Amino acid sequence: MENGKKTEQNELRKWLDLLCGESFACELDEKTFRIDVFETDSHYIIEAELPGCLKEQLAVICETNAIIIQIHKEKAFYKQRIVPLPFSLQHKQICAYFSAPTLEIHISKDESTNDTNRYTIMINERNY
Question: Which residues have a Cβ under 8 Å from the Cβ of 24 and sit 6 or more positions away?
Fold first, then answer.
């Protein structure tokens, strides 16, 4: 299992280098909303800057290899950003936290028992 974790981390580093170096990432930041991806010892963190959004307007959807962040305004779909990942999310614990204007999505590096291919993540308010 340790070898699989190292492979996953190497793939993530390659993906981050590719993602951060691509000009389309800057264009997406301007057209939709800005995201950053971070790594800690225990989690991968996707951070989205969503000025003017309320928690009730946000949806975070997990697919097999991607996180989808959606904004709904006036009960209609407004914007979304799909964050493809170089590893499966099938057995990962995922939590989302919102403290205006920042949404943080934490993806555990350890495996959990989640077997679903697509589901919505509950967004918790973060009080600092």
Answer: none
